[in-house]
Design a protein that fits this description.
Length: about 325
């Protein structure tokens, strides 16, 4: 990949498996990518492809029966998977902030907004009550909440969905993290509020000089807010490249299918193309390339050989035996 200062590097084939009674679910199955300082990296794919589990793996928040079984997650050169839990607690919320997709499941319903903000600030910055409160109010102002002193005294259920999301952004970013993880941050919001929230996250990222991992299924958001993109399918990355190239020169058949399925204004056709078939069972995936049962370009090799993510040209990585790489 291009020479640049990398803040997060996932290498060594990150694998996060869930050990269930039905078998081993390979939610993340050999993922490698990196994020440079100041960069926004989009992780895109269908529901269930492993995007959110990848994000939770970075923060070591995968609950049993899930377990990270291999790989390295290097943040500022240090492997997060080798840190003791006490060290990891200092990283979460301070150096890495996560914005979850559902604020009501992330905010504590029995604690005021102010308490939750101040708790995060005190935990990571070691400040006393008055200074923590002042910083909490300043953070609510930064996320553009009107009358922040009043909102500090409210409980999450007393706020609208958009206001709840702004509060959660405030909690995630109150310590000015070097890396922001945004996991479908606007899923539960209407379109108008979505745009406001995404612009807010982008502006705060710029103000703080942070990098960002944006997880989404929406290629439109990727084109507008991301610098590079990784396309996931059934737990693995199938393509990684600059955002401009994923739209102008998609190389993997799955990526091509996603691009073709984007609705276009003034399109002559009445129906959108679809990718035939279903996402494979991650407990019993098909042999070889996991996408081959749905792929229009599949040949005999595809059911026999598992493709590796290789560099087709500088900065453009593809996992396909037909990409001229194998």
């Amino acid at each position: 990949m291009n020479e640049r200062r990398v803040i997060l590097k996932i290498q060594g084939d990150l694998k996060t498996y869930f050990f269930t009674f039905d078998g081993v679910a390979k939610a993340v199955d050999g993922v490698n990518f990196e994020i440079a300082e100041g960069e926004t990296f989009g992780l895109v794919g269908e529901t269930g492809c492993g995007k959110s589990v990848t994000a939770l793996s970075v923060l070591r928040l995968v609950d049993p029966p899930g377990r990270i079984v291999s790989g390295e997650i290097l943040f500022e050169g240090k492997d997060l998977l080798r840190m003791k839990e006490r060290e990891m607690q200092k990283v979460r919320g301070d150096k890495i902030g996560m914005i979850f997709q559902d604020p009501m499941s992330s905010l504590n319903p029995v604690m005021t907004v102010g308490f939750q903000l101040k708790e995060s600030i005190r935990l990571h910055k070691g400040l006393r009550e008055k200074k923590a409160e002042r910083l909490a109010i300043e953070m609510l102002e930064q996320v553009r909440i009107p009358d922040p002193s009043k909102v500090m005294k409210r409980f999450p259920h007393e706020l609208s969905g958009g206001m709840q999301q702004r509060v959660m952004i405030g909690i995630a970013l109150c310590c000015h993290p070097k890396l922001i993880i945004a996991d479908e941050p606007t899923t539960a919001l209407d379109v108008t509020i979505q745009a406001q929230i995404l612009r807010l996250i982008r502006d705060l990222k710029h103000d703080f000089g942070s990098s960002m991992l944006m997880i989404t299924h929406n290629l439109g958001l990727v084109s507008k807010y991301c610098d590079r993109v990784g396309v996931m399918y059934a737990g693995s990355l199938v393509e990684v490249c600059d955002v401009s190239e994923v739209f102008s020169e998609p190389s993997h058949p799955y990526t091509k299918g996603l691009i073709e399925a984007i609705p276009r204004v003034n399109a002559e056709r009445e129906t959108l193309p679809v990718i035939a078939g279903r996402i494979p069972d991650i407990i019993n995936p098909p042999p070889g390339c996991k996408f081959h049962p749905r792929c229009k370009e599949a040949g005999p090799r595809c059911s026999e050989e598992k493709p590796r993510l290789l560099e087709a040209k500088p900065g453009h990585w593809v996992a396909c035996v037909h990409a001229g790489l194998h």
